[in-house]
Structure formats: C-alpha cells, structure tokens
Amino acid sequence: MSAYLDNAATSCPKPEPVYQAVERFMREVGATPGRGGHRREEEAASIADEARAALAELFHAPEPNGVAFTMNATQAINMALKGLLKPGDHVITSSIEHNAIWRPLKALEQRGVAVTAVPCARDGLLDPADVEAAIRPETRLIAMLHASNVLGTILPVAEIGALAQRRGIPFLLDAAQTAGACPIDMGSMKIDLLAFAGHKGLFGPHGTGGLVVDPGIVLDTWVEGGSGTESAPVTMPEKLPMRLEAGTQNAGGIAGLLAGVSFVLEQGVEKIRQHELELTALLIEELCNAPGLTVLGPDDVSQRTAVISVTIEGYVPEQLAVVLDQVFDIATRAGLHCAPQAHLTAGTLKVGALRFSPGYFNTSDEIREAADALKSIL
Predict the structure, then answer these.
(1) What is the CATH number of domain 16-267?
(2) How many helices (H) and strands (E) are present in the chain, helices listed first?
(3) Rounded to two decimals, what is the model's pTM?
(4) Which residues of the chain, if any, have pLDDT below 50?
C-alpha cells in the first residue's frame, strides 16, 4: 500500500515531459533569457515566451506579456499587495486566507493600511453581499484566495470580481490551489491580478510561480535589479513583464512549468477537475462512518476542491499523519497548513486537522486504501 495524498502542498508525481524538459534545459540550453546574444539565450527566451503564452491561454489572460514569473505564489502576492497599497488605503480580504495573503496584509497594516477580513461561515462559504458591504471610499483592493487549502471551499470569485469592477476596485486572486485544477477566466471573472503557484496543479517544479497583471494595473516595483534589457536607466523598465522580473529567473524551472501547463491544456481543466472531484467524493463517502470523525468544509462536493481535512475526536492529527506515513506509506499533511485564519473560522485552531489532498494521478483504489488505513488506526 502506498499513496501520495499531499497534492495541495505540491503535486507528485509530475507528468513525464516535465522531468524531460527540465533535464533538457539544464543539459542543452542552460542560458538565461535576456542575458546574452547567442543561440542558447534565444532558445531560453523562446521557452519563457512560450510559457507565458500557455499560461495566458489557460487563465484567459489579456496578454502573455502580463505574466511575470516569480519563485512562488507567495512572492507574487507580495508583489501585488506591496505594489498597490499605500498608507491610508483600505483592503478587503476573507477570514479563511492562507498566510501568503494574511501575513503581508498584517505587515502592511503596521504601515498604515487598513484591513477588513470579511467573515466566512464555518465551512468557509462567503456571501458576496458581505464583501460589498465592507467597501469604503478608501478601498483600494479586494484580495482573496480562490479556494481554501484547509476547507477546500471555493469562493464565489465571479460574483466578487463583478462587484469589484462595478465599484472600480482592483481584484487580486490567490489561485495557488486552483490553477490547473479549476477553470479560471480572468476576463469573465473580472480578475485584475492573479497569483499562481507552479508546483501544484500546474505540475511544474518547485521555485516556479507568477503574477498575471491586467494591462490597466500599474504596480510599484518592490524588487529592483537587472532586467536583461533597457539596462541604462536607474529605474526598472515600465513595460511588463520586465518591470516585475528583476534578476535571473528560474529558467530551468520555467521550462518544466511550460511542460506542466501544456499537459494541463492537453488534458483539459474540466477533465482534471472531474477526476479529482470523484476522488474527493469517494474519500468522504469512505470516511463518513468513522467514529468521531468530522470532515471540514462544504457538504456539497461541487463547492470544494480536492481537499479533505478531517478532525477525529481523541486523536492528534500529527500523530495520525506519522502512523499513516510510517506504517502505511500514505502521505498526508497535518497541523495548521499555514492557514491559521481558516482554522480559526472552522473552530479547529487549537488542534489543526489531518488533510488528504488527492491529485490527478491518484486512483480510486488508493483512496479506498487510505480510508481503510485511517479506519484501521481508529
């Protein structure tokens, strides 16, 4: 028995072309986009441009040049928040945010930015009307996750985006949990800024991610340095993506990310989501009769991603994760999952939870074996 059920942290395994793309780049290309005047540099630049185009296609982004690469979603979120918000501004978020949004907002709060966290229900569901009620004259941004990495809850992004546009407020979406796993259309969802992680549902390597910026949004730079071109001025270039890509990028990782995004586009996001939802429903069904077990998040599976966090009366989640790993070779994650606000909302802040997160390469047999393993422990 063996199963990797921690895909909400990092997807594993990757599609075979991802491994091949990284190895080929490191062995045969090896150059940095924009840093050189030779064939290898041109190929590296071409790969980066292809990756931007693939991501723009996946997210229905306005243009590929709006895709700025970062090391992860957290860096992209910081880039957006600190590029827009200034002392005296007001920002709206939710009560179930990952620390990737919550901690930079709290840091900005210390510098004079007002923060309102709109309360979600215990299962993470959010009423868009509550978001609109929180808007003030000085509201400069609405920044929220697409789906909770603890509860699995998918927020009503299209409705929130529509009200943000109606009120003339930019909308930042943290798509770390949904990029590649749920349909995202920046145009129809009225998303102005989208942060994504490369190593989760996009099947890319660690150290990849990015921020997709609508052409109408101008961000102050928060990191300055070499941009490869336009080197004479003392300021960063005005044009995207160079304005937001100071220093050498993870070019080999971007090659792998291109292969991962290409795989998602070939399979189709709807197909991926359908498979993951089937596994989610199956695991919840298999666990529903376990003694003392509570599944966090919405009862309606269609309102969640492939994240199943559970608490079990009388058991410490970390201990259960250790036994599942060492005895059954089943990888899960326990604790607060870098999202204490979600646990505070769910009422599980003191104990945390045990999280199962199936991925596209998991099977129904693995799900049943994981459920049987947990029930045997209990």
Answers:
(1) 3.40.640.10
(2) 11, 13
(3) 0.96
(4) none
